[in-house]
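I'm stuck. Please check this protein.
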Amino acid sequence: MSFVVLFWYWFALTGVLLIFELFAPGVIFIFLAAGTLTSGIALWVAPGLGLELQFLVFAVVAAVAYYFGRPFTRQLSHRKVDHLNVRGESLIGMVTNLTEPIINGRGRLRVGDTTWAVAGPDMAAGFAVRVVGIHGAELKVEPQR
């Protein structure tokens, strides 16, 4: 009894590799998935294709996909991000009320559905404050006059 590879085995392996791609950092499994998909299609079109030829199709297509696709994916992953905290910067100038008091220079306020850590002069909860800056994930506030 010999092992026979059916075309849907290659398609199933393609699905598994695509799932791996979703959870893996970087981009690598997509090139292997291109090879397995092509091998599955080749076996579907030519059912008598030998196992050695199936693996050859897989290896060649995966290597070619990697060779031509890697520069593109590398370019996407090295894009410069000028403003890492664009959302926080958009809050500068906003006036809102403190959710929790500022004690020893630290407190919290709510903006929409997000609670932000704030730094500023000590104030009681409910005071109106203006966001004047951001440092990391902490908003700098001052009393609204």
